[in-house]
């Protein structure tokens, strides 16, 4: 599985910066086991059996003679005493960056060779035989500079025989593991670009019971990562020369594509220090049979947020834009008056022109006085729109009388309209502010109502208007916007909803019984497949009509109740920039809130047609087409198919 992983991506974010390509360096290491001419064919008596069982969970294993191993260029070669070789190509393999792991035995004890990390004494050390004065030795704790440091020792591991290293300062620095008497049992030393590791015991249980322990598996596992830095150098010399050429490059969306013509290659000795850019774009580069990835995250470390650099930080939605026209005109007028005053003073005609100066002052004061607000004109337009909204699609919200709440509701509806036009075929013409007591409501698919805590009782006329709106297919969205209070006061009843609840006793307002939304509800799949319904907050419960089986409304809920403050998360200015401040309780919370808003609009406009998909598989099966058939596969929308 590890060798089949091609890339790592952050879910639902399509960009080159969120894509990390995997190359030859990230796969399981290829380990070569050098076969000898006199290997034992019985598994439990063969030293290779114990090495294979220890390495199999963490590496790909290839067995063969030296010619076969060098042909596949393994990252590590394991050589037992029976497979001992004096071939000069083995030494060159190590010098070119390979890792050789050797095990001792009778042959090495009788006649040491030069391909060793430390010098050896001829003859072995028998510390467990019938004629030996010494008793078998256990392992000493691993030193801090050993790759085995931190592994827990087992007291039952005993060494009966070993090959002895020649004492000296160099032997001490090359020792990875010792017996309790201080004699080295595992040594290692570099050889040019590669490394040699020697176990001073056999690979099987002939000289010790180490191969029978779990510690043996962990120790070999600690050795494997040492080949990660040299694996790219284990190819033959002809392949290590030349440039790395781009085979596929990443575009801005993190998709691999063919490289543009004329793209320059990267010299082999410069690849590790090459930063991605226009000259060398991120992607997969090839040299012979090898592949290396050049990722946008260059030498990845812990990522930190960029420092503000002295800039003032803030979020959208703090204040409304303020016109400076009046202030600038007033400043211009003041400078003009000063200029006239100084001119008259210099000419000696100041007394005769006092009246002129006073007149100019009045004009400047009039310029400073701000012009009437554009929003006042918009309110008049909303009130006068009336029946014209029957001809085109409009989104609407109910005015509450609170300026800040109504401003955010309008911005939320405008932001939702902007996203609907950008992402779907729905094109709302404008947003209307509805006075529930006076304005008609028959022409809007839904009414968003940020229910205030000080809601006043509705008049009978408004009650009848809401009843007719819901009976004709409209959806009333009640947003209490108080999820932050609900976290502190879980049993608190919203005063505005409490006021509506009082009117439930009056038969005039026919608000149905409500129930929490389930994951099978059409709201979760009317356009996007979603499982959460966030706004400014993300953990508020959403409620819909309990019974939706009536044919009059096609099973669509006439009321939706929530507390997540959806308008704040939808709010955008005319340039599409977010205005509201959200709490970011879940990843990509604003995007998820917009998706819920689009699902909500689609639900209001199209009804519950997506609910029929739960039966689509059965209908297709009755027609003789299996949705799971491998040939001519049918994908049902909403169940893995297109949205």
UniProtKB/TrEMBL annotation:
Listed Gene3D superfamilies: 3.40.50.880, Domain of unknown function DUF4159
Keyword Transmembrane set for record: yes
InterPro entries, A to Z: Class_I_gatase-like (IPR029062), DUF4159 (IPR025297)
Source species of the chain: Hellea balneolensis
Domain DUF4159: 394-605
CDD domains in alphabetical order: A4_beta-galactosidase_middle_domain
PANTHER family associated with the record: BLL2463 PROTEIN
Keyword entries, A-Z: Membrane, Transmembrane, Transmembrane helix
Membrane spanning residue stretches: 324-346, 353-371
SUPFAM superfamilies assigned to the protein according to its UniProt record, in alphabetical order: Class I glutamine amidotransferase-like
Any Pfam family matching the protein: DUF4159
Name of the protein described by the UniProt record: DUF4159 domain-containing protein
Domain of life assignment: Bacteria
């Amino acid at each position: 599985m590890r060798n089949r992983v091609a890339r790592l991506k952050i879910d639902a974010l399509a960009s080159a910066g969120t894509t990390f390509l995997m190359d030859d360096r990230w796969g399981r290491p290829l380990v070569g086991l050098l076969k000898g001419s006199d290997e034992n064919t019985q598994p439990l008596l063969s030293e290779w059996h114990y090495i294979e069982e220890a390495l199999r969970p963490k590496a790909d294993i290839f067995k063969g003679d030296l010619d076969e191993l060098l042909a596949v260029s393994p990252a590590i070669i394991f050589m037992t005493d029976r497979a001992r070789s004096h071939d000069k190509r083995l030494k060159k393999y190590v010098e070119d960056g390979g890792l050789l792991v050797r095990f001792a035995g009778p042959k090495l004890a009788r006649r040491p060779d030069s391909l060793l990390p430390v010098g050896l004494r001829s003859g072995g050390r028998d510390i467990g035989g019938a004629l030996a004065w010494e008793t078998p030795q256990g392992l000493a704790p691993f030193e801090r500079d050993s790759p085995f440091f931190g592994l827990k020792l087992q007291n039952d591991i005993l060494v009966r025989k070993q090959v002895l290293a020649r004492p000296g300062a160099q032997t001490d620095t090359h020792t990875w593991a010792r017996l309790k008497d201080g004699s080295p049992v595992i040594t290692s030393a570099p050889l040019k670009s590669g490394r040699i590791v020697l176990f001073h015991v056999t690979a099987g249980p002939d000289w010790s019971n180490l191969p029978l322990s779990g510690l043996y598996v962990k120790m070999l596992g600690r050795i494997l990562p040492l080949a990660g830095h040299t694996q790219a150098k284990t190819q033959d010399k002809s392949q290590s020369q030349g440039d790395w050429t781009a085979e596929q490059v990443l575009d801005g969306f993190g998709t691999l594509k063919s490289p543009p013509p004329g793209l320059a290659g990267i010299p082999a000795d410069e690849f590790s220090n090459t930063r991605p850019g226009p000259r060398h774009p991120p992607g997969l580069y090839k040299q012979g049979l090898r592949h290396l990835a050049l990722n946008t995250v260059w030498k990845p470390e812990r990522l930190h947020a960029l420092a503000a650099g002295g800039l003032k930080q803030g979020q959208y939605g703090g204040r409304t834009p303020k016109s400076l026209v009046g202030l600038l005109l007033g400043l211009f007028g003041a400078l003009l008056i000063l200029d006239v005053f100084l001119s008259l003073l210099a000419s000696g005609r100041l007394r005769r022109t006092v009246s002129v100066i006073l007149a100019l002052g009045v004009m400047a004061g009039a310029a400073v006085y701000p012009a009437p607000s554009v929003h006042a004109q918009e309110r008049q337009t909303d009130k006068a729109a009336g029946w014209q909204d029957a001809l085109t699609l409009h989104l609407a919200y109910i005015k509450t009388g609170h300026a800040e709440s109504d401003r955010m509701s309008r911005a939320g509806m405008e932001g939702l309209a902007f996203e609907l036009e950008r992402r779907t075929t729905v094109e709302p013409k404008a947003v209307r502010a509805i006075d529930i007591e006076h304005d008609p409501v028959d022409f809007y698919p839904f009414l968003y109502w940020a229910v205030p805590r000080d809601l006043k009782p509705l008049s009978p006329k408004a009650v009848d208007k809401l009843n007719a709106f819901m009976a004709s297919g409209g959806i009333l969205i009640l947003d209490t916007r108080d999820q932050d209070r609900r976290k502190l006061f879980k049993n608190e009843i919203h005063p505005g909803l409490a006021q509506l609840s009082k009117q439930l006793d009056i038969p005039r307002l026919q608000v149905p019984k409500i129930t929490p939304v389930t994951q099978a509800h059409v709201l979760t799949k009317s356009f996007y497949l979603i499982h959460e319904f966030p706004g400014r907050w993300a953990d508020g419960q959403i409620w819909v009509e309990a019974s939706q089986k009536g044919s009059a409304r096609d099973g669509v809920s006439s009321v939706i109740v929530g507390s997540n403050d959806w308008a704040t998360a939808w709010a955008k200015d005319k340039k599409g920039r977010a205005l509201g401040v959200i709490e970011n309780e879940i990843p990509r919370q604003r995007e998820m809130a917009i998706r819920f808003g689009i699902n909500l609009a689609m639900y209001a406009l199209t009804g519950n047609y997506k609910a029929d998909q739960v039966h689509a598989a059965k209908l297709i099966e009755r027609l003789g087409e299996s949705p799971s058939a491998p040939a001519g596969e049918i994908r049902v929308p909403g169940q893995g198919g297109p949205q």
